[in-house]
Specification:
Layout (H helix, E strand, L loop, with lengths): L1 H4 L12 H7 L2 E6 L9 E7 L15 H9 L4 E6 L7 E7 L1 H12 L1 H6 L4 H8 L7 H12 L3 H4 L8 H8 L8 H10 L3 H17 L6 H11 L1 H11 L7 H17 L5 H14 L4 H10 L6 H8 L7 H21 L1
Length: about 325
Amino acid sequence: SVLRFLNITVDQFRWGSSTDHLTTNPVVVLAGPTDESPYKFHPKTWLKGSAELGLPPIPYHVDSDTRRQLATHPNQSVLFVFGAGESPRWQRVAYVTPPMREVVDAIISEQSGWAADRNDPLRFAFFAERHNDKNLTIRSLAMTEILQSRYGLMRTLEPQLSQTEIEDALSDPMLVNYAPLYIAMLGLIEDADAAALVRSMVVRGQRLSLGPRLAPWAVALIETEGSMGVRRVAQIALGVVPSNLETRLAALNALALHGSEGRTELRADIASILHQIAEHDPALAVYAISPLAQWQDWRAQDVVRAYLQGSHPVSMQERIAFTGYLAAAERAENASD
């Protein structure tokens, strides 16, 4: 997913696993206080499971703000799940308004397919339609779901925001976790000013050696400029323009991502660049080899053998990766005979 590509953990997002909570846990309830017990949550609607299960009480306290909100809006509630496994417990998932209730019901109705595949195209389409929803909870859930999807799906998104709205979002510290997605949107909207902004940020990222933070801008640049974008990003990855190792790696990752599931029509050009990196940059060679193996491009065997034979010091992790590349190449050659 894009989260893994950018080294962002799902735990950073409050809504990062909400859909998975609903699809994988055996018990889902809408809860609220009662007149007799105004400071405790009690199940009011069982969306999955039933009271006959004899589960322990929900241990969460109803804070004063939530209590006032629920008293004012009796059609609202708080969503809880009770998990399975060795240590099942109640978990609070979301505050549920009527629009959010519709989303919750839709997720549960699709649970069998969505639980099996986070990258289900129908699951992605459901949340893509809601990436600019007026309801903050729904919008946050949709944005995080999109971020957890593979880039090949993400780039099918049709952003419903203008460049100005995207720039405003990128300036909002409350939305910093969603910055990679907003940057991707700049690459997906057909706007000359957005393309110019992306290009300027890549130049700035290279000069400032932004490391991993360059990656989403480099991905967006290739999206907007195609082969020209590949050449610009390649200059960073190859060290033609001065940058630190982390920034060069970010550029390499952007190239690899597009070669795998972005602008795949440019894979041959990208593979040529990765071969150059593998041969001339020992610090990044192992990272260049990985996508080449994925694409079943075995032309780097001599380079890899040279590393294993001591042309440059290699770590145990690099040795394992290089050996794996050669073994996969041999299997592929034997299979073709």
